[in-house]
Amino acid sequence: MAKQKNKKDRFSNNINIKNRKARYEYEVIDKLSAGIVLKGSEIKSIREGQVTLGDAFCVFQKGELFVRHMHISPYSHGNSENHQDTRERKLLLNKTELQRWEQKMDEKGLTIVPLRLYLTGKGLAKVEVALARGKKLFDKRSTIKDKDVKRDLERVKY
């Protein structure tokens, strides 16, 4: 008799797409996990891992948060009803969280960037967004130096 798959086993794709550029360019102040409104062909492309977060950023429009320039490739087996690859996508957050971050956005130099896109155990797509401040050139150099020192210590360890 064939083994039945659990619902959790069906969605355990381990999709975890990170925005490494954002960690280098920005200093993370606060993080939140938000749901995202997607079309059917978009979630299928995410399950294939066809997402790029490199140029993505978030903006407020009429009290709601949207992510722009998040590239989700068109679904490979899609038809003429396939989605646009870089359309605006709405993020789902509580009203209090939205209001708090919108007030913080008034400060100079703060922005909201997506750090990673992942699937939950139930198969839902979530985006981890961060309130961040841009780094100066010397901050970026110190980040690279710390990374090199850490790598050298790991080599010595083994």
UniProtKB/TrEMBL annotation:
Keyword Glycosyltransferase attributed: no
Subcellular location: Cytoplasm
Pfam families recorded: SmpB
Keywords: Cytoplasm, RNA-binding
Main location (coarse class): cytoplasm
SUPFAM superfamilies linked: Small protein B (SmpB)
Family stated for the protein in its record: Belongs to the SmpB family.
Protein known as: SsrA-binding protein
Source organism per UniProt: Persicobacter psychrovividus
